[in-house]
Amino acid sequence: MGLVYIRNAAQVVTMAGPNDKPRTGAAMSELGVIERGGVVLEDNRIAYVGTDEEAARYVEQHSAGQEVTVIDATSKLVTPGLVDPHTHVVFAGTREKELGMRLNGATYMEIMNAGGGIHYSTTRTREADEEQLIRETAKRLDRFLEHGVTTVEAKSGYGLTLEDELKQLRVARQLHEQHPVDLVSTFMGAHAVPREYKGDPDAYVRLITEEMIPTVVREGLAEFCDVFCEEGVFTPEQSRVILEAGMQWGLLPKIHADEIVPYGGAELAAEIGAVSAEHLLRASDEGIRAMAKKGVIAVLLPGTAFFLMTKPAEARQMIDAGVPVALSTDRNPGSCPTESLPLIMNLACLTMHMTPEEALTAVTINAAHAIRRADRIGSLEVGKQADVVLFDAPNYLYLQYHYGVNLVETVIKNGRVVIQDGRRLAG
Ligand code: NIG
Ligand code: FE
Question: Is this model's pTM higher than 0.70 or not?
Answer without folding.
Answer: yes
